[in-house]
Design brief:
Length: about 500
Amino acid sequence: MIKSILKAVKYTFLILLTIVATIIIVRAFDARRMPDLEIWHTAKLESEFRAGQADDMITFEAYREKEARLFEELNQKVFQLAPRIAEYQLSRYFPDGQNNPEEFPVNWNRSFEMIPTEIKGGALLLHGLTDSPYSLRGVAQILAGENIYVLGLRLPGHGTIPAGIASATWRDWMAAVHIGVRHVLSQTGEQKPFFIVGYSNGAALALKYTLDALEDSALAIPDQLILVSPAVGVTPFGFFAGWHKTLSFIPFFEKFRWQSIEPEYDPYKYNSFPKHAGQQTFQLTIAVQKQTDTLKKMGRLSSFPSTLVFQSLVDDTVRTDAITDRFFDKLEGFHHELVLFDINRMAQTRSFFKSDNRELIENLEERSNLPYRLTVITNEDEGSREVVAKTRKTGFNEMSIISLGLSWPVGVYSLSHVALPFPPNDSIYGQRPECSAKSAVNLGTLEPRGEKGVLRVSLNQLMRLRYNPFFCYIEERIIETVRKYMTGGEEKTR
């Protein structure tokens, strides 16, 4: 009997192994049909920061000097060798091109500082995966306007070439975060409020650092977290992202390393996506989840700092439900808030949606004694584009309703993961871009028309909303939050 069982298990395992191997081989051959790799997909920049260098590079000044050498190497290995033919004129790597960020007055792919005359606090800003420090420039300007010293940190692998995130690890990112924290505190002193703002993958890094600080008294705990589209949970397919390595080391299958190979026309965000990068985000979220669970069992999450989260109800990049299930539901205290931006619920658009996406909001609104504050930005009614803020205070079941004087733009049916941190007047992604002497093609107003199946870039990507029509509400809430610390309305955690 035992021999029969073992034999059955062996055959089952072999069958499963054969199926997996077949899938990998088929996908590897399929990847060969992807567009050709360009120099920005294959070049190796040796000057990039790695976690192993952290002990010898403890200051931001040293980090920035290394970053300067990195961009010099980028110029030598990519810009000087990039194709100089007409079809590449809109590439971010085309010398003297309209989308070349090195030609802009400020290249926001690099780490930046905003230093007010009178510093009343400090903030570290952490951008998302494939992004650059530019993605939180709007938030940086808000904070600087409140006399907050701001460090917008470029994370390793970002702001240069897509190949950069094909080798960077989440431990590299975390090592850079620690350098950034130390620098912010050196500019402000430990007695002034300290904020961390994280967007997407940067939000996961902010959570990881904060959890580390709860375990290590040598690390400064931030007074406030502000998270935008946080990567608390991502698609479970991230688990399989590393399987390409079984074949992609072979030059014949080198394209198998990539989830997508796209034209690089966006000056501040990669369009191509290596599978390694998705694997790193997945591993980071797992590490955050395990650490959160451990500290919960130890009763240590009561010291977790006040956290304000802005999230679109529909998000194709991260899991919105994970923010509540894996994070908010495990926190203690009554000083956290989730702001959810609902879809446009005008009745005339209802028949176009695959789902009404009501389940999560209804579950949150119906839960008794919700342990955090909930705000839902939604239509005043199904006949109006005007939006209201429905707020349920911690420990209460009733929801107050406040008109915001804002409305859904015509033709916009929802926000998106990549829209939240950008104001409508953003020069790259906005609906009403700021005018400047030298700027890229505005990507927020693209309206391509033609036959389907013609463009290399998917219409889903081109038509994805890139700005937040309700950004002024985020601005108001950020100002309200930081001013509490200036007036003594909130106690410092350090």
